[in-house]
Design a protein that fits this description.
CATH architecture: Roll
Number of helices: 2
Distance between the termini: 28 Å
CATH topology: Thiol Ester Dehydrase, Chain A
Shape: globular
Largest sheet: 6 strands, antiparallel
């Protein structure tokens, strides 16, 4: 099986800092895969809040994750502060990708690259929806990297 390769954008829209907690550590003594996805979720929520949005209500719809990919570059350990940079890419009719670069704050060591695909979802109707205009107004697809 071929390895996943994630290209990083030239520019990011947002960065936030998150600390690796002891509960994020697996039996190998480093940040676990499941915890990394949780940290990316936390960073995505911070990104949306920064722009006055929430995962549950953007133009009347919520977000739902369609896929995710993680590529680890190094380990992360309890007590380290991670800097998560976020960009948007690959817009389509119903959503886009959130692209992340995760580095350790003190050393700038790259810890991971990731992407999560999202679509907009009407939870009342249980149906995928077109990208709402308020999201497009903030993040026009032609401005994405």
């Amino acid at each position: 099986m071929a390895r996943i390769k994630l290209e990083l954008p030239a520019h990011y829209l947002f960065t936030t800092e998150l600390r690796v907690r002891i509960t994020d550590v697996n039996y190998g003594g480093h940040l676990g895969n499941d915890a990394m996805l949780g940290l990316l979720h936390e960073a995505r929520v911070c990104f949306l809040e920064h722009y006055g949005l929430s995962e549950g209500s953007i133009g009347g719809f919520g977000l739902i994750m369609t896929d995710s990919a993680l590529v680890y570059k190094s380990e992360a350990f309890p007590g380290e502060t991670l800097v998560v940079a976020i960009a948007l890419a690959d817009f389509n009719k119903y959503g886009c990708d959130f692209v992340y670069q995760v580095t350790e704050k003190t050393s700038s060591r790259e810890v991971a690259r990731a992407k999560t695909g999202i679509v907009f979802f009407d939870y009342a109707k249980r149906a995928i929806q077109k990208i709402p205009q308020p999201f497009l107004d903030l993040f026009p697809p032609d401005a994405a990297v």
